[in-house]
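Sequence in, structure out. Go.
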Amino acid sequence: MWSSRTKTWRTASQFICLMAVIPACLCHASTSMAEGLSELGPISDIKKVEGEYQFTEGPTADSQGNLYFTDIPASRIYRLDTEGHVSTFVDSSGHANGLMLDKNGTLFACQMDGQLVTYNAAGKPIKELVKKHQGKRFNAPNDLVLDKAGGIYFTDPRFRAPKPWPQVKEAVYYLDAQGNVTRLVDDLQAPNGVILSPDEKTLYVIPSMQKQMMAYPVEQPGKLGKGKVLCELQQKDKNGNSGGDGLTIDTLGNLYITSGLGIQVVSPAGEHLGTIAFPQQPANVTFGGKQRTTLYVTARTGVYSVEMKAQGHVFTGP
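Output:
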């Protein structure tokens, strides 16, 4: 989710200089290969719903349509309600990045300061879920997805990690319902976004520093089979090898992956269906709204939305 193309933490001003910010509140949704997206959307213009943040990330929505997202450098979690009002949900979040809500309204968060935590509906900490593997802190937990068995798959790449990396390797982990943590994957270049298929039989991981997106069969909760390359992300440059950041999935299993070109939409078979361009480079994405048909995108200093025909899949936990 939070990613960088260098090994150092860039300041917010450096990121703003890298990206051209379009000040208009509305812009036409720009897509490539639009025929591949005809059954999915967009069906509206892109709307800038919030702005003036340092680096937005981690969007997740509740069943009422409220959106939660992080501002990593500010170490805050915000709540955007259905009336369009924004409030601070957590004032000191441990540089939270990826978020996900369960069916009870508990908010699960990856803190880049080294742990996974939960918050209640009032934004108060409930407990630390996990902060160490084999006696050492995690590098900087980045993204997560809840499964029906009560477990959590999460990524732990290099971004904002101490040097040398505490875990030595960047990896994907599984935290089971009893609190046991297992390292599952450690051979990817900056594993970043992570999501399950709607039937939870496949785990998808998008690295930030390689264009190959991986798919792993889930043999049982917390146990993966041999991974395969699902697809290669399209590149700005002919010889580029850039990966993605965050991602989400719809009820049909289509993946929506943030990249340097925008939101690249990929079918469960790995076919590139099209790309939705945004005014700023997307960092992460989720479905929200009361019908889960609004695509929310956190993109550097702003939060954007666009209406879709597709409907987002909901991960509720056990």
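Check: The first strand starts at residue 26 and ends at 27. The chain has one domain: 12-307.
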